[in-house]
Specification:
By secondary structure, the chain is an alpha+beta fold. The protein contains 3 helices and 9 strands. It has 2 domains: 2-88, 2-Layer Sandwich (Double Stranded RNA Binding Domain); 103-174, SHC Adaptor Protein (2-Layer Sandwich), CATH 3.30.505. A hairpin with a 2-residue loop joins strand 3 (47-56) and strand 4. It is globular. 19% of the residues are buried.
């Protein structure tokens, strides 16, 4: 797996970086050499924030942890990633064989272009919507840890949205 370590608002020593990467290499058994892992380390007040995002055959697997100690945050992230992988393993394997991983949405951040005269939009994202079933969209939404997910329905090629309801079930919004 290819690791990309990004430090924001903090400088890590080489030994801290090596310890962190050594700890994260425990998840290599789940992924191949061509898969990418983005690790973002930042600090807010007295808390270290560790965010790990893995791109695996078109699906994102993501975990985030906040703790005073970076190694403890890494342990929490690894537990979350391990739980997500084991929970979704059979669904992911079924989708790999069925070609479901080829259908995904890739999200690309764009720079903020906000002027004082405009409505205050603080972040803008563009994405390419590829066809996937609502079930695959729910799986992708859960792996990202989001409350909603936008996708293209393969039957109608219309934009749809799945979302998590307050009762823990899922909803589907279909456009016309």
């Amino acid at each position: 797996m290819t690791y990309n370590l990004i430090c924001k608002q903090i400088e890590l020593s080489e030994s801290s970086k090596e310890k962190l990467l050594a700890k994260l290499r425990k998840i290599d058994k789940f992924f191949g050499d061509s898969d990418d892992c983005k690790i973002v380390v930042s600090q807010q007040k007295d808390k270290m924030i560790l965010e790990i995002t893995i791109l695996y055959k078109g699906f994102f697997i993501r975990a985030e942890a906040r703790n005073e100690d970076l190694q403890t945050a890494a342990d929490i992230c690894l537990e979350n990633l391990d739980r997500q992988i084991r929970k979704n393993k059979t669904r992911l394997e079924k989708n790999i064989r069925g070609g479901g991983f080829e259908n995904y949405i890739s999200v690309v951040d764009e720079p903020d272009d906000v002027t004082e005269d405009e409505i205050s939009i603080i972040k803008r994202k563009r994405f390419v919507s590829k066809p996937m079933s609502p079930e695959e969209a729910v799986l992708q939404m859960n792996m990202l840890g989001h409350d909603f997910f936008v996708f293209a329905n393969p039957e109608t090629m219309e934009t749809n949205i799945v979302y998590r309801r307050k009762d823990g079930k899922y909803g589907l919004i279909e456009t016309e």
